[in-house]
Design goal:
Largest sheet: 3 strands, antiparallel
CATH topology: Bovine Endothelial Nitric Oxide Synthase Heme Domain, Chain: A,domain 3
Radius of gyration: 20 Å
Strand content: 5-15%
Number of helices: 7
Mean pLDDT: 92
Strand order of the largest sheet: 7-6-11
CATH class: Alpha Beta
CATH superfamily: Nitric Oxide Synthase, Chain A, domain 3
Low-confidence stretches: 221-226
Shape: globular
Distance between the termini: 14 Å
Structural class: alpha+beta
Number of strands: 11
Number of domains: 1
Amino acid sequence: ALARRLGWPGGPGTPFDVLPLVVQGADGKPDERPRWFTLPQDAVLEVELAHPEYTWWRSLGLRWHAVPALANMCLEIGGICYPAAPFNGWYMGTEIGARNLADTDRYNLLPYLADRLGLDTRTDRSLWKDRALVELNRSVLHSFDRAGVTVTDHHTESRRFLTHLGREERKGRRVGADWSWIVPPISGSATPVFHRTYETVERHPAYVHHPEARARALGEAGGPLV
């Protein structure tokens, strides 16, 4: 919505259009207008989603970008917020398959996929949501692996996190974690991170939520848009 208000004409009109970057200076000019920049096509790697068993899955036209990059947080060092500090990592499959493509306020694909899979959607007791969710996550992992793009799974990362936690605790260092973020959005109780609690202590330097990021996205902060 912000990019549109700034004059971006829009993409091809698919559910997976690549949005532009919106940048605004922070050099003391309160009237500086945000500007949008289209990403070069050769800078965007996307993964087409297929399924290891269902050949019709590819015809759905689902895809997702290969690299999760964040540019709306600030790197806080010594109490100073550095907003121009983008960073990236690699995806855990559930971020795409259990949240981005499945959440009802995002792509909400579970009802459609359940229908294509022939599941009984008349009652929740058939567990159609759970079954569709598992197949969607299988699709993500299978497709990224086939494309040679790094992706990890929630079982592997749960074990890795507890290994990290144990190593730090043995050295007498406190580790902060939010249970709701550490426990994966599917099969939570089947992972070891589910069965313990965590301190909510924060350590700095750290990436933190930018105090104006949401307001700026809504056009409510960061100077005039026109």
